[in-house]
Amino acid sequence: MRTFLLILSIVMLTSCQSAYYSTMEKVGVHKRDILAVRVNKAQEAQQDAQQEFKSALEQFSSLIKFDGGNLQKQYEQTNDQYQACNEAAANVSERINSIEDVAEALFDEWQDELDMYTNPKLKQESKAKLNSTQRQYKQLLSTMRQAESSMAPVLDSLRDNTLYLKHNLNAQAIGALKSEFAGIERDITLLIRNMNKAISESQQFIATLKQ
């Protein structure tokens, strides 16, 4: 039953997306245009995520320097930062998924339309352009997924530390968390580097789509 419902939901989603693309094409907005917009949105989501993870690191740095005061407030701020990172990460994943959807539709359509050519030269040029765009897209998607995956260990660490602090609101807890900082800082540095690479490739890909 679950398998059937999953298949049904996929079919319905695919149908809705197809209808959306058809409607947009009627008003002059083609799949290539939608893909460029979605890549740009994913780029913005990654930039937002970078900022949230940087803020979380700053909050964690402040936490382990805690020296008297309202520890409950420190916990709440730490939890808020974790939740913000979690939401930002989910948004990045959603944006990447939306890119995959329209890219597949675009490349399928492009491939099908190659058979409609009667001019061999134009057909060959279009095919070469398709292959080149697909290669660049696959590289971009791989880089985006790599950046996406690098968020997981950071989120795990932030969640673990937040939960630990929640149930241990005392100076000893702060001491225990100090040893975690270096690992989180390292993972966030890697995350930001991966996202910067994805953002750079996104800009190049968008430029390619506009050629």
List keywords for this structure.
elongated; mainly alpha; 7 helices
How would you characterize the overall build of this protein?
With 211 residues, the protein is mostly helical. The protein is built from 7 helices and no strands. It has helices at residues 2-26, 31-64, 71-113, 120-149, 151-166, 171-178, 181-209. The chain is elongated and about 80 Å long. Residues 3-12 have low confidence and may be disordered.
Work out the radius of gyration: 22 Å
| Morphology | elongated
User: Which residues sit in consecutive blocks of at least 5 with pLDDT less than 50?
Assistant: 3-12
Give the quaternary arrangement of the chains: single chain
Would you kindly provide a brief summary of this structure?
This protein is mostly helical and 211 residues long. It has helices at residues 2-26, 31-64, 71-113, 120-149, 151-166, 171-178, 181-209.
Please specify the SSE layout and strand pairing.
Layout: H1 2-26, H2 31-64, H3 71-113, H4 120-149, H5 151-166, H6 171-178, H7 181-209
